[in-house]
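Researcher: Here's the sequence for the chain we discussed earlier.
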Amino acid sequence: MARYVLTLCHGRDKTTLELPEGSDTAVLDVARHIESHFGIPLKSQKLICKGKTLSEHSRLSEYAVRSGSRVMVVGRRYVLEDDAKYKKIEKIRERVGRTSGKLDDIKSELKGVEDGFLVEEFRAAALSKLDRRCCGCNEDLMRCLEELDGIGVEGEHGDLRAARKREVDRIHEIMRDVDRLQENVSSRSL
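Model: Thanks. This is the structure I predict for it:
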């Protein structure tokens, strides 16, 4: 079988694509290759050959695309940092960081109570206050989880799903830390 090669051009970037099925190849298959090579999502691609826009529901033969043809690719590469959903995840990540800092403060204050830097008569009130602050941190982390759950990433770019998953895992780890801290505070107040 003769080689069937297309030249794909996106801006100054060029690549060749060898097609085993020749002109019977679906335009969608070419678009998937473009997505993996150039990083342009399928939904934002526009393919042009010989002045005609190629529909992803058709085959190359319908447009008389021959071996050696040049296919122009129009579309914007996916940039994770520009995604609005990613920006929401980053804002939540910052909030979680602040909550984690509050937990560090609580740990420091609890250590001071354990080391006896507080008069015995004020110890119960201080431990009660630390327990309430732990509950507040836990509630804030729960709100962050709810907000992350509200950011739909089904069918989205894999990096976006991974960013959300990392943040959910991080929040769960911090919540386990809060639980351990609350147990520590409770055991001291007995």
